[in-house]
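Journal club prep — side note

Before the paper discussion, L.F. wants everyone to see what a predicted structure for a comparable chain looks like in token form. Sequence:
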Amino acid sequence: MLSHERIWSALDALAERHGLTASGLARRAGLDPTAFNKSKRSGADGRQRWPSTESLSKVLEATGSSLDDFMGLVRGERPVAENGFPEGAFPPQTGSIPLLGFAQAGSGGFFDDGGFPAGQGWDVVDFPAQPAGRPGVYALEVQGESMMPLYRDGDILIVEPGAQIRRGDRVVVRSREGEVMAKVLNRQTPRSIELISLNTDHPNRSFDVSEIDWIARIIWASQ
């Protein structure tokens, strides 16, 4: 399904693939350097703006990409490395998955743009073959008491980036400010996300979609 968010995310991913910013991609394609800026993706009235077919055509030509390549990015697919798994992703390992603490997850360099584990500094935790066998699945260790009474300090949450998310699902969210939190998804629209706190001592949260880096579903908890 084509959506405003997926089209723009695909353009961002294409720019990154070629070591460019959104502005750099526009410039290479002979377009106004601000054409793909985030501020241009919606109007003053809040209406969504879409890249034109002419702009997309120029971008594909400038980067030597095919329409199939671009549609793969729209679908969230990533280039496949020699090991048979998406570039930068940890291949599934029977009985073990990447592990990171919540505090570290707020730092840069541990995730790619899709919220998949990448880079160095990850530990490994042993876990049953399922869900460990799912590509991209990783573990986050709860630190502190902010998720009580549902999750305690030291509990392990198994997260699956890219999994379909519905209202009522428990999710891990990372904001563009680097804040990482576990919440319950209350409502999601093309413009905003509403989250319910697991701990009643903490307020519920609302974000503009532009403020969210990624959101992933919690599929398992080791308690």
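L.F.'s comment for the group: The two ends are 37 Å apart (CA to CA). Keep this in mind when we get to the figures.
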